[in-house]
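User: quick one, sequence for these C-alpha coordinates?
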Protein backbone atom coordinates (compact mmCIF):
# COMPACT_ATOMS: atom_id res chain seq x y z
CA UNK A 1 0.00 0.00 0.00
CA UNK A 2 1.16 3.51 -0.76
CA UNK A 3 -0.26 6.65 0.80
CA UNK A 4 0.75 10.32 1.13
CA UNK A 5 0.54 12.03 4.51
CA UNK A 6 2.08 15.28 5.78
CA UNK A 7 4.16 15.75 2.62
CA UNK A 8 5.70 12.27 2.79
CA UNK A 9 4.99 9.02 0.98
CA UNK A 10 4.51 5.85 3.03
CA UNK A 11 5.10 2.45 1.37
CA UNK A 12 3.65 -0.26 3.61
CA UNK A 13 3.64 -4.08 3.42
CA UNK A 14 4.11 -6.04 0.20
CA UNK A 15 6.29 -9.01 -0.77
CA UNK A 16 10.00 -9.66 -0.79
CA UNK A 17 12.13 -11.48 -3.40
CA UNK A 18 11.33 -14.80 -1.71
CA UNK A 19 7.63 -14.06 -2.43
CA UNK A 20 6.77 -13.79 1.27
CA UNK A 21 4.66 -10.97 2.69
CA UNK A 22 6.54 -8.38 4.75
CA UNK A 23 5.91 -5.84 7.50
CA UNK A 24 8.08 -3.21 5.81
CA UNK A 25 7.10 0.43 6.30
CA UNK A 26 9.32 2.92 4.50
CA UNK A 27 8.82 6.67 4.22
CA UNK A 28 10.04 8.86 1.35
CA UNK A 29 10.60 12.55 2.02
CA UNK A 30 10.64 14.51 -1.27
CA UNK A 31 12.15 17.53 0.49
CA UNK A 32 15.33 15.57 1.29
CA UNK A 33 15.06 12.96 -1.49
CA UNK A 34 15.62 10.28 1.15
CA UNK A 35 13.95 7.11 2.41
CA UNK A 36 13.73 6.13 6.09
CA UNK A 37 12.28 3.22 8.03
CA UNK A 38 9.18 3.64 10.19
CA UNK A 39 7.47 1.29 12.64
CA UNK A 40 6.74 -1.96 10.80
CA UNK A 41 3.22 -3.06 9.97
CA UNK A 42 2.05 -5.33 12.86
CA UNK A 43 1.08 -8.20 10.55
CA UNK A 44 2.83 -9.00 7.24
CA UNK A 45 0.50 -8.76 4.25
CA UNK A 46 0.14 -7.44 0.72
CA UNK A 47 -2.66 -6.50 -1.69
CA UNK A 48 -3.99 -4.20 1.05
CA UNK A 49 -5.72 -0.81 1.18
CA UNK A 50 -3.91 2.21 2.62
CA UNK A 51 -5.76 5.48 3.25
CA UNK A 52 -4.84 8.67 5.14
CA UNK A 53 -7.56 10.21 7.28
CA UNK A 54 -7.39 12.79 10.09
CA UNK A 55 -3.59 12.63 10.30
CA UNK A 56 -3.46 8.82 10.57
CA UNK A 57 -2.87 6.01 8.08
CA UNK A 58 -5.38 3.16 7.94
CA UNK A 59 -4.12 -0.13 6.48
CA UNK A 60 -7.05 -2.44 5.80
CA UNK A 61 -7.49 -6.00 4.53
CA UNK A 62 -5.01 -7.66 2.21
CA UNK A 63 -3.68 -11.17 2.20
CA UNK A 64 -0.97 -13.18 3.85
CA UNK A 65 1.28 -15.47 1.78
CA UNK A 66 -1.51 -16.89 -0.40
CA UNK A 67 -4.70 -15.65 -2.05
CA UNK A 68 -6.41 -18.33 0.06
CA UNK A 69 -5.45 -16.35 3.20
CA UNK A 70 -7.35 -13.07 3.08
CA UNK A 71 -7.14 -10.59 5.93
CA UNK A 72 -9.71 -8.47 7.71
CA UNK A 73 -7.00 -6.66 9.67
CA UNK A 74 -7.34 -2.91 10.24
CA UNK A 75 -4.14 -1.31 11.50
CA UNK A 76 -3.84 2.41 12.22
CA UNK A 77 -0.49 4.23 12.07
CA UNK A 78 0.15 7.46 13.97
CA UNK A 79 3.17 9.32 12.52
CA UNK A 80 3.42 11.53 15.64
CA UNK A 81 4.26 8.50 17.82
CA UNK A 82 5.61 6.21 15.05
CA UNK A 83 3.31 3.48 16.35
CA UNK A 84 0.46 1.24 15.26
CA UNK A 85 -2.84 0.39 16.94
CA UNK A 86 -5.65 -1.97 15.96
CA UNK A 87 -8.92 -0.68 14.56
CA UNK A 88 -12.20 -2.57 14.16
CA UNK A 89 -11.64 -5.35 11.59
CA UNK A 90 -12.94 -5.12 8.04
CA UNK A 91 -16.35 -6.91 8.01
CA UNK A 92 -15.50 -8.92 4.86
CA UNK A 93 -11.90 -10.18 4.73
CA UNK A 94 -10.42 -9.76 1.25
CA UNK A 95 -7.41 -8.63 -0.75
CA UNK A 96 -6.83 -6.55 -3.87
CA UNK A 97 -9.46 -4.08 -2.69
CA UNK A 98 -10.04 -0.49 -3.79
CA UNK A 99 -10.25 2.34 -1.29
CA UNK A 100 -10.65 6.09 -0.98
CA UNK A 101 -11.54 8.65 1.68
CA UNK A 102 -15.03 9.92 0.92
CA UNK A 103 -17.14 12.27 3.08
CA UNK A 104 -15.30 11.30 6.27
CA UNK A 105 -15.54 7.60 5.52
CA UNK A 106 -12.98 5.17 4.19
CA UNK A 107 -14.71 3.30 1.38
CA UNK A 108 -13.42 -0.23 0.84
CA UNK A 109 -14.80 -1.62 -2.39
CA UNK A 110 -14.51 -4.98 -4.15
CA UNK A 111 -11.42 -7.10 -3.75
CA UNK A 112 -10.96 -10.81 -4.14
CA UNK A 113 -10.94 -14.08 -2.26
CA UNK A 114 -9.56 -17.37 -3.54
CA UNK A 115 -12.87 -18.06 -5.26
CA UNK A 116 -14.29 -14.80 -6.68
CA UNK A 117 -14.04 -11.04 -7.15
CA UNK A 118 -16.07 -9.28 -4.47
CA UNK A 119 -18.99 -6.88 -4.82
CA UNK A 120 -18.82 -5.74 -1.18
CA UNK A 121 -18.86 -2.03 -0.47
CA UNK A 122 -18.08 -1.22 3.15
CA UNK A 123 -17.33 2.09 4.86
CA UNK A 124 -15.33 2.93 7.96
CA UNK A 125 -16.43 6.15 9.67
CA UNK A 126 -13.24 7.72 11.05
CA UNK A 127 -15.18 9.77 13.66
CA UNK A 128 -17.40 7.02 15.12
CA UNK A 129 -14.83 4.25 14.48
CA UNK A 130 -17.51 1.94 13.10
CA UNK A 131 -18.03 -0.01 9.89
CA UNK A 132 -21.21 0.04 7.82
CA UNK A 133 -22.33 -2.06 4.88
CA UNK A 134 -23.26 -0.03 1.78
CA UNK A 135 -24.94 -0.99 -1.49
CA UNK A 136 -22.82 -3.58 -3.33
CA UNK A 137 -21.06 -2.61 -6.52
CA UNK A 138 -22.71 -3.99 -9.70
CA UNK A 139 -19.84 -6.35 -10.54
CA UNK A 140 -17.02 -8.00 -8.66
CA UNK A 141 -13.91 -5.88 -8.99
CA UNK A 142 -10.33 -6.07 -7.76
CA UNK A 143 -6.83 -4.84 -8.55
CA UNK A 144 -7.97 -1.30 -9.25
CA UNK A 145 -7.78 1.97 -7.33
CA UNK A 146 -10.11 4.53 -5.84
CA UNK A 147 -10.23 8.31 -5.95
CA UNK A 148 -12.59 10.98 -4.65
CA UNK A 149 -13.47 14.17 -6.50
CA UNK A 150 -16.22 16.35 -5.08
CA UNK A 151 -19.34 14.35 -4.24
CA UNK A 152 -18.26 11.19 -6.09
CA UNK A 153 -15.95 8.25 -5.45
CA UNK A 154 -14.50 6.67 -8.60
CA UNK A 155 -13.23 3.12 -9.11
CA UNK A 156 -11.77 2.63 -12.60
CA UNK A 157 -10.91 -0.64 -14.35
CA UNK A 158 -9.50 -3.66 -12.61
CA UNK A 159 -10.48 -7.29 -12.97
CA UNK A 160 -14.01 -8.65 -12.77
CA UNK A 161 -12.72 -12.15 -11.88
CA UNK A 162 -10.34 -13.22 -9.14
CA UNK A 163 -6.85 -14.03 -10.23
CA UNK A 164 -6.48 -11.24 -12.79
CA UNK A 165 -8.55 -12.49 -15.72
CA UNK A 166 -11.47 -10.51 -17.16
CA UNK A 167 -9.87 -7.07 -17.18
CA UNK A 168 -12.62 -4.47 -17.39
CA UNK A 169 -12.53 -0.88 -18.70
CA UNK A 170 -15.64 -0.10 -16.64
CA UNK A 171 -15.67 2.97 -14.38
CA UNK A 172 -17.75 2.60 -11.23
CA UNK A 173 -19.02 5.85 -9.67
CA UNK A 174 -20.40 5.90 -6.12
CA UNK A 175 -22.35 8.66 -4.41
CA UNK A 176 -23.80 8.77 -0.90
CA UNK A 177 -27.13 10.55 -0.47
CA UNK A 178 -26.91 14.08 0.93
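Assistant:
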Amino acid sequence: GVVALNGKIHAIGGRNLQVKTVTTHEVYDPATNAWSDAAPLPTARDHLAAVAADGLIHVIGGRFDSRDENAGNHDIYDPKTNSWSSGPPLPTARSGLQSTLYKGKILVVGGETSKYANTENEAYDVKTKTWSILAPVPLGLHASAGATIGDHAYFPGGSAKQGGDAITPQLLVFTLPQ
